[in-house]
Amino acid sequence: MRPYPDDISLVIEGAAGQGVQTITAALLPILNNSGYNVFSCMEYMSRIRGGRNSTEIRITGKIRRAFTAHIDVLFALSPHAFEHLQNRIDEKTLIFAEKEQFGNGWNERCIDTPIAKFAIQAGGPVYSNTVAAGAVLGILGIPLEPLNIFLREQFAIKGDEAVENNIKAATLGYDFGLLTPPALKSKIPLPSTNDGESHLLMDGNTALGIGAIAAGCNFICSYPMSPGTGLLSFLAERSGTFGIVVDQAEDEIAAINAGLGASYAGARAVVTTSGGGFDLMQEGMSLAGMIETPIVVHIGQRPGPATGLPTRTEQGDLDLALHAGHGDFARAIFAPGTLEETIATMQQAFDLAQRFQIPVIVLTDQYLLDAVSTIDVLDIKRLPVASTIVRTDEKYKRYAFTDDGLSPRGVPGYGDGLVRVDSDEHDEQGLITESFDMRSRMMEKRLKRLQPLAEEAFPPTVIGRHDGAEIMIVCWGSTRGVLEEALDILDSKRLAGIHFSQVYPLNPSILAMLRNRRIIVIENNARGQFADLLTHETGLGISRRILKATGEPFSVEEVVDALQEEAHG
Fold it and tell me: How many other C-beta atoms lie within 10 A of the C-beta of residue 541?
């Protein structure tokens, strides 16, 4: 099933070290600057060299945010491409590869492409990826000069010879692509272009970082762990420009405690990790709940248990985020599904953390973080940033009882008051207590913010025609794009979708949206963690769960097939 005629799925396959990511990094901005909408996602093995990696580049008539299984054009840089991608190759796939590498796998769909020969002519086998990049532009009929500009900038540090060899490799590939028979080129027509002027290319890590900076983040402390490290790298690269203190901790326990210490001193702090790292942060989460200190925690999800599949994707850490930390305390959990939502969500996370003095978790995953897509700059919103810190006086009590359970938050050195905090149960002044009455009142105080948190929870986004739909397809986090596209293809009045970017607490308005309808939940995990949460919070039954836990994202084709019967009754 090929979803749209106005859509090209281009896949580049190769071993780690063959430069698949370099080709992608060169082609995406060229396509974007040429006025095309693009979406790209990658899959790669947890190896420095060898293994089998691939990148999909979709060139689409409108902005899309989903992976497709089908391949229109395949550039095979390794002889393992047929075996690796056999479930995605069909009779319509055009395959550009070197005939002598493939033996019995060769057929009429294959175009003999002398990538290695051209690379040697340019200076050596290392230039194979540049040959491929040039060939792609030649086949699509897009000018070569933007690629040459990229190569000059990318390889200037390696000297003139490296630059000239890369340009020669690109030219050889480009000339070959231009000579591709018109009958073959007609099978891969380029989609229509957009206006191009207001469109940017962005990945999820960049969106997270932009959102954090817009929220006033000025402290990050983390121990690197993929795929959460991208946020640390992004903020570190811009720390001087935006006044961000960056600390690479010795482990995740130190990271969250440093974040809490910075927040206690008045910083707007974030830590970033993956599920295995967050395991170590749970005592720190509980500490945040007890001392009522704001902290934003980003978890880039990947398949577990243990090391699992460290370079793959999954939505398997919702339960972990929901129950992390011993004892009862308030928290909020977000799970954005688009770049625009990711930028906004980070700002909302900081705002809630500061106003409600709680830990706030932002759940993403490898797929969302590494995927690159076109975004309209007009869709990037900056939300107001307000300080919630008060100047203290001599009578200041850090945990003063108030009607809403939120004590005025002071920080050391800002005013004359003493800002005392303690991880033991404490009284209004922060002094340790074992009074049962005080314990009861403090527990009530800390939990009192749960109701306003729910009332302020961001309502889900409706996808499709909601009013007349008999069946509601529920998704959260990174599954938004694939559900949007599947519902667009099915075009059924019986189906509508709802996407949750805030998964806890849930806005009470969702009851009216879901009641008296058949509910199907789609999510990238083995048991249906959000389906369980939805039932627990609303009492509504889930009719069906569409689940996937292979380490891969859902493809558009999979979701269309899964909903086909529902769409047509």
Answer: 10
532 three-class SS = helix
The answer to whether 38 touches 203, Cβ cutoff 8 Å, is no
CATH architecture of 7-197: 3-Layer(aba) Sandwich (3.40)
Say how far apart CA 97 and CA 116 lie, in whole Å.
Answer: 10
Whose CA is closest to 299, among 349, 351, 238?
Answer: 349
Residue 101: predicted pLDDT = 73
Provide the strand spans (E) within 49-179: 50-60, 73-76, 94-97, 110-112
Sheet holding 495-500, edge to edge: 461-463, 495-500, 471-476, 518-523, 544-547
φ, ψ of residue 129 to 5 degrees: the values are -65, -35
Q: CATH 3.40.50.11610: does it fit domain 461-568?
A: yes
9-65 pLDDT, tens per residue?
999 998 877 788 889 999 999 999 999 999 999 998 887 666 788 999 999 988 899
pLDDT score, position 4: 62
Average pLDDT over residues 312-331: 97
Q: State which fold the 201-379 domain adopts.
A: Rossmann fold (3.40.50)
- Identify whether the C-beta of residue 89 lies closer than 8 Å to the C-beta of residue 74: yes
Computed over every residue of the chain, the mean pLDDT equals 93
**Residue 116, Cβ density class (10 Å: 0-12 exposed, 13-18 middle, ≥19 buried):** middle
Q: Which two tokens stand for residue 404?
A: 């809403």
% of the chain residues with pLDDT over 90: 82
Task: Return the residue matching tokens 């005592």.
Answer: 283
